[in-house]
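Format notes (please read before filing issues)

Several people have asked whether sequences and structure tokens are stored in separate files. They are not. Every record keeps both together, in the order shown below: the sequence lines, then the token lines. Line labels are part of the format and must not be stripped during preprocessing.
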Amino acid sequence: MGEGPGASKELKGVAGSGVKGSGGMAEAVKQTAGAIGYLDFGRASHDKLAISQLPNRLGVFLKVSTEAIQAAAKFDAERVLYTGDPDFYLVLANNDTYAGWPLATATFVLVPKNARDPQKLLDFLYWGYKNGDGVSRELGYVPLTDTMKIGVRKAWSRQYNYKAGM
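Then the structure lines:
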């Protein structure tokens, strides 16, 4: 393998230690003066860790928040809604919105095209969209914006002929 950082499984000349999972990372950061670690927003908030500000693509320094993550999601959801992307492919990281957190990511549920009864799964997910925002926040997740929920339901309608609540 070549020389230099990233050229092997171990970084040469870099001090640090490995930990297991988000909980291990949170504890290591808490217990180590000057430590830097990467955690999701919910875990960092729950553990009351100091969170750095980062510049987005437009050069605006932002502190991570539910609103900043939703701004990134809303920007891309609206792009998808107006372009009619059939796969609802989103990359929320570093998009062109002024208020959007540059490291936002989304979690996806994959529903096979040949699923035996996608209606039942989509009914469950739809119920979650209608009733799950509070629980999402309690667990440290950022709920989808209303715009994004509309876009997802439109994609379900196109791909699975889904009718909400049927």
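For reference, the curators noted about this record: Strands lie at 53-55, 61-63. The radius of gyration is 19 Å.
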